[in-house]
Amino acid sequence: MNTRMPPAWSKHIKAQPAPKVKQPKVKPPSRAQADDILLRQALDLQQAKRLSEAEELCHRVLARTPNHPLSLYILGTLGLGFDDELAIQYFARAIGQAPQNPYFHLSLGEAYLKVGDSLLAIKHLQRACELKPDLVEALCGLGRAYVSSDKAAMALPLYEKALKINSIHPMVRTGLANALTSLGRMDDARAYLKEAIERRLNMPAAYNDLMHTRKFTEEPSELASILSELANPNLAPDLAQQLHHAAGKVLDDLQRYDEAMDHFQKAKRVAGYDFDLESYRRWVDSMIELFSPEMLAAKASHGNPSEIPVFVLGMPRSGTTLTEQICASHPDVHGAGELTKLRRIANSMGFRTQPDEAFRGSIMSMTRDQSRTLAEEYLSYLRQHPPAALRIVDKLPHNFELMGLIGILFPNARIIHCRRDAIDNCLSCFVLNFTKQHSYNADLQTLGLYYREYDRLMRHWDKVFPGRIFENRYETLVADQETQSRRLIEHLGLPWDDACLRFFDKDGSVNTVSRWQVRQPIYKSSVKRWKHYESEIQPLIQSLGDLAEI
Questions:
Q1: Which band of pLDDT confidence, cut at 50, 70 and 90, is reported for residue 329?
Q2: Could you please report the per-residue DSSP string of 310-359?
Q3: Is residue 184 part of a domain?
Q4: Residue 239, domain member (yes or no)
Q5: Domain encompassing residue 530
Q6: Which residues make Cβ contacts (< 8 Å) with residue 398, sequence separation at least 6?
Q7: Are 65 and 71 in contact (CB under 8 A)?
Q8: In this structure, what are the phi and psi dihedrals at residue 313, rounded to the nearest 5 degrees?
Q9: Using an 8 Å Cβ cutoff, are 193 and 213 in contact?
């Protein structure tokens, strides 16, 4: 069959103009719609871990719509863990544009908690709870903030409310148990932790917390359950890390030291932390060079003469919590806990983990007025704690890195350096589930070499601040509690009070890993504890060298 069109029809079609089809007019998206499209893409990229691309889209939105609240908020979330101070600035700007958004207040409060500023965290988490009373994450966040600021009793009703709103939220029971533990209510805490384990809610953390609420003399049934969980080949590293620490703690209590160390070692391996020791050595070199006797003499008239600040510092697990509790049992002393305010002030001057030329320049060019302004910023923060206290204790252990700045800003501050047998101190660090911030704790050899650098820096501070640093030796304190406690209070410039001998009866919460121990009278079982592990910790002993007291 011939399907070719006849010539006449062909001529006719060619003669006709093409029919006009009316195209609908498509409006280009408005600026707001275009911003929304880009920000949805940014959120998708963030979920896909393509963070730099997500950040670029947010900045494109801000270039077109300055101070767009959602764009600022997303940038804040992108900054967490990389530059927490910058994240705080973005969240604060987002709140400035959308002050009624509870999620913006929640994120800013959580960010403040992350950098250790519990007072500002409370302000924004309270606001989030006011704006959205059923926001469980805000209730739990506010509970954590209260616990970290020595107000654990105020956290209890928040967690109880959260439990009624969402009984299966993974963070509620462990958070409530943490508050109860801080208050010394161990039996109540254990009940909630066991509930969390039964319901498989935040289970590895619940196991770890449960094992740290008491000392075991008989094998608990939970140990077999922990080992069974660890047999799962698909267990995520962060969960395995907590379970290994939980198992190690129980086995240590049971004096099964070989098995305990095996779990502690495995916990470190699955954590995968890495520490640049050579870089840290160069950092210590730069601090020693910067804070020379000559430079400090030139800054002798700087800072604020206040006698309120007391800095309790040293290696973690050296007795800082015990020392703070003894001091804070005095009626004229308030223990503020581990404050990060001084480090944040230092960071604003260019200080990071490794100070660069910006920090050196800030210190060298600091005028008297500038030093007084910085000192007043810190003192204003302290005054948010009980204002009637004659002494307020900041017991952040790693303030030993900032002793040079402390010496300039507070020439009359009391400084207590907690020191402990080097092997015991390092072993006590190694067996705990420290965060990545303490990555020097990654293996025994690195830990010992890091301790040597800490010791080198502290010897420098003793040299350039002669007579200013009171050394509180843990072994001396536990051997003669009253004599050493009297020396501590004398160093604070205060009259003796017998309450300091009963520090374990002190009201309030304790928020460090030592919270179970400091609620007991002083005991001596931690002295030379390392002897139980001597064959397993030879890399630590060898790296400590002459600092190891064999």
A1: very high
A2: EEEEESTTSSHHHHHHHHHTSTTEEE--S--HHHHHHHHTT-SSS--HHH
A3: no
A4: no
A5: 277-547
A6: 313, 316, 343
A7: yes
A8: -140, 170
A9: yes
Whole-angstrom distance, CA of residue 354 vs CA of residue 287: 9
- Encode pLDDT of 224-264 as tens digits: 999 999 999 999 999 999 999 999 999 999 999 999 999 99
Torsion of CA 522, 538, 399, 395, to 10 degrees: -20
Residue 414: strand, helix, or coil: strand
The CA distance from 42 to 78, in Å, is 10
Say if CB 97 and CB 61 are below 8 A apart.
no
CA gap 30, 437 in Å, rounded: 45
Position 496 scores a pLDDT of: 97
| Token pair recorded at residue 450 | 């890091």
Residue carrying the six token digits 């089809």 = 21
Return d(Cα 528, Cα 549) in angstroms, integer. 10
In the chain, % of residues over pLDDT 70: 91
**46-79 pLDDT tens trace:** 999 999 999 999 999 999 999 999 999 999 999 9
276: nearest Cα among 98, 49, 439, 426 = 439
Q: Is the pLDDT of residue 21 over 70?
A: no
DSSP structural state of residue 29: P
Pairing mode, strands 391-394 and 469-473: unpaired
Q: What is the largest CA-CA distance in the chain?
A: 122
Establish if 403 belongs to a structural domain: yes
CATH code, domain carrying 450: 3.40.50.300
**Residue 363 to residue 408: CA distance in whole angstroms:** 9
470: left (phi over 0), alpha (psi -120 to 50) or beta: beta
d(Cα 163, Cα 157) in Å, to the nearest integer? 10
Residue 187, both tokens? 């039996």
List CB contacts of 509: < 8 A, sequence separation 6 or more.
Answer: 147, 150, 151, 152, 153, 179, 182, 183, 515
List b or e across 325-353, with b for residues whose CB sees 16 or more CB atoms inside 10 angstroms: bbbbbbeebbbbbbbbbbbbbbbebebee
Rounded to whole angstroms, the Cα distance separating 428 from 366 reads 39
- pTM greater than 0.70: yes
Count CB-CB contacts under 10 A for residue 58. Answer: 27
Mean pLDDT of the residues in the chain:
91
What is d(CA 203, CA 170) in angstroms, rounded to the nearest whole number?
9
What is the tally of structural domains in the chain? 1
The string of DSSP letters for 437-460 reads GGGGGSSHHHHHHHHHHHHHHHHH
Beta strands in 399-544 (DSSP E): 414-419, 469-473
Q: Residue 10: what pLDDT?
A: 34
DSSP code at position 303: S
Query: Which 3 state secondary structure label does DSSP give 145?
Result: helix
Would residue 251 count as lying in a domain? no
Distances (CA, A) of 454 to 268, 283, 315, 450, 472: 21, 11, 8, 6, 16
Tokens representing residue 406 in the block: 């402390």
236: DSSP letter = -
Extract the tokens encoding 293: 């006797």
